Structure formats: structure tokens, C-alpha cells
Amino acid sequence: MSEAESDLAALVRAEVERQANPFQIMVVDSVQEDGTVNLQWGEGIINGVAANVSYSPRAQGDVVLVLNHNAGWRVMDKIGGPVQIDIPEPIDLSFGTPAPAGYAQASAVWVKDGALYVQTGEGPAPGPGDPPTASTPDPVTVEPTARQGYRSGRKDSQRFAQGASPAYPKAWTSIWTYGGRIKNACQGKTVDKMQIRVARTSKYHGTSKKVRPKFGLHDEASPPGSTPSLSSRWDGPGLGFGSSELATIPAAQAAKLAAGDMRGIGVSAGVSNSSYLIYKLASGNLRITFK
Question: Which helix (H) or strand (E) segment is 251 a member of?
Fold first, then answer.
């Protein structure tokens, strides 16, 4: 049995059980950007199930109660009630005056070998040996300058995808280009984390199960005429239909991008339903945080 036939059989089995039992307990496989959820049903996935407003926030791995009604499945709520917190009885507290007579307010306190050293007032200005206090740079978002898909060795504007399915065996390679934006954003800073936003379309292409982005680096400032090569490959987190993630770029690859040794990111895979993935055009934005 093929993977597509297995998915169909799982959904047929789900429909039979749905009609026999109005309530089921399921697990959230992933959350779509429109707020609907993809539910795990045995080996199959039920995509785009609506949920009550009371089920919030919604997250992957939640165990939920699902109702069968005339229009299909609907998520009622996450299993289990809210956590009850015991609030202690109020305690009456009294405080001294803001500036007690005879006392000076301390501006800094140091401890050494059990002894306290208290500085009052503003104190002297930092000496030449005192290191300055540095503030952490704000995070930045870097958008691609271009998005381009390739198939059969040349540009193809039909879609931005990785790999191919057995029904459409010509594999896709696609890239995001940034010019010098990544290097410029990291100039003079120390990168703490670099992440790329990836979002999967809700169209039913390939398997209904999660598919991992198959990333790689390239050194193209703008899209070339023929399929570029990708290096330093790595896998991202699994994406269900309509879901999105901020995928963390490994430190070694992030360092190459920050230094300008590599200038962009691409995706490619072989011919298989388990690796075929179509991306939303909103994918490709980088979020960079610094130390």
C-alpha cells in the first residue's frame, strides 16, 4: 500500500468511527496559521479541523476532546481543567518611613569573605580600569531580496518547493537570496541565534503528515539562471499542512552567513512524498538575535 493510500484508508477509518462515536480524544499534530488544527488519528492526519474559541492557546501535542457533529469534527477543548492556584490570606505589613533619621541610602553593596561594603550617594565616576556596561543590540528581521524556484536545471516560476512527489517526479530546488543584508545586519555584533521562518501551504500536495524542510547554504547574491548548488545541509522541524515555524539555523551555518562566507539559504530534496514540500511565499524571513 502506498503512503497516499495509507492516508486515505486512515481517513476512511476515522469517518466510520466518527459516525459511531460522537466524542473522541485526539492529539494535535500541528496548528495552522488560520487557527485550525491538524489532528493525529492513528497513522493518519485529519487536517484543518475547526476549534471552539475556549481552546486557546493551541499547541502541538495537546490532547483534545473532539466532537462529531453534522458538519464533521470540531475540537471542543484541551483535556483537563485549568490549574487552580491557592491564594493565601492577605498579610498586614507595615514599613518604616522612606528616609529614617540618621541613615543614608545605599547606592551599591558588595560582599567579600562575609564582610559588607556599602556605597552611599552616587559614588565616584568609573575609573579607567572599569569596563563599560554594554547594552544588547535589538533583534533584527532580514527579508529576502528574491525567492526563486528551479526545476530541470533552470528557473521555474510556478511554485517555491523542495523535492517532488512520485506523481510529479521532476524535483524542485528553491532559494532565498539576501544580497549583503545578512552580513550588514550582523556587522560588529555577536550573533546569539539566527532563525528562518518557514510556512507550508494548506493545499493537499504530497503527504498529509509532517514534512521537514531540507535546508542548505548558497553563495548567490541574486537568483542565477541555472539551479544553484547547496552545501552545509541540515533538516528543519516538521511542518503540517498550513503550519509555520521559526526554524533555528545551526551555529556553524549561522556563522558563515553572518561573516558573509555564504549569502543565502535554499531547500531541495529527492522524489518522495515524505520530503516533498510546498512553501508559502511568506517564508524566508530571518530573525537574528545578538548577545
Answer: helix 251-259
In a domain, 201, yes or no: yes
Selection from 176, 175, 115 nearest residue 151 by Cα: 175
* Cβ neighbourhood burial of 262 (10 Å; 0-12, 13-18, 19+): buried
Last residue of a domain, one of 24, 56, 78: 78
Long-range contacts at 149-153 (CB < 8 A, ≥ 24 apart): 149/173, 149/174, 150/174, 150/175, 150/226, 150/227, 150/228, 153/226, 153/227
Domain around 285: 140-290
Residues 152 and 247 in one domain: yes
The total number of structural domains that make up the chain: 2
Q: Does residue 89 sit within a domain?
A: no
CATH number at residue 37: 2.40.50
CA–centroid distance for 221 within its chain: 25
Mean pLDDT value across residues 70-75: 87
Cell 500536495 identifies what position?
A: 205
Q: Are 74 and 182 within one domain?
A: no
Residues 230, 236, 242, 243: is their CA dihedral positive or negative? negative
pLDDT in tens, 190-232: 999 999 999 999 876 789 899 999 999 999 999 999 999 999 9
Interacting residues of 239 by C-beta distance below 8 A, sequence separation 6+: 30, 198, 199, 200, 210, 211, 212, 213, 245, 277
- Let me know: does 208 contact 43? Beta carbons within 8 Å: no
Closest by CA to 265, choosing from 275, 273, 257, is 257
Q: Does pTM top 0.90 for this prediction?
A: no
Q: What is the pLDDT of residue 80?
A: 57
Q: Which pLDDT tens digit goes with each residue over 155-164?
A: 998 899 999 9
Tell which of 54, 78, 102 closes a domain.
78
Backbone angles phi, psi at 201, to 5 degrees: -65, 160
